[in-house]
Amino acid sequence: MITNKEFISIIIVSTILFFVSDYFFNDAIMYIVGGLILAILDKIFSGEIGMPLSLMIWALILMLFIYLFIRIKTKALKYSILILIGILFCVVDLLVYSFFDVRDLATSNLNIALRVIIKSVFLNVISYFGWKKLNP
Q: Cα(85)–Cα(65) distance, rounded to whole angstroms?
């Protein structure tokens, strides 16, 4: 069972990592992962795939990794999949971008803060249930 100390440490570490990657690298992770996934989908579907379908496929890949994280028992593999889930959370960035029109610095900072908090909380909840399944 995950304790409060582990729960808080996971949320602090994930918040710091997501903040550093979003603020200092200006969405570089989103562009790299998004470009990789969309390039693969473009090759598979011969360029006839739209953005909504590609986002749904991206979300399905994310759900598959979440399912694997909950099911797998090996700690090393769990950590690896948890890192992949954190990287695939760039789809959250795209969804938040669709709601905010970033025109000034305050909106940009609010956008970054909202994305970091959402991704950290989601990653923390997923890790909680994944470790709970490992140690009932």
A: 6
The C-alpha angle 4, 13, 2, rounded to 5 degrees, equals: 25
Q: For the chain, how many residues are written? A: 136
**Where are the domains positioned within the chain?**
4-134
Instruction: Kindly report, residue by residue over 77-122, the tens digit of the pLDDT.
Output: 988 898 888 888 877 777 767 666 666 666 677 777 888 888 888 8
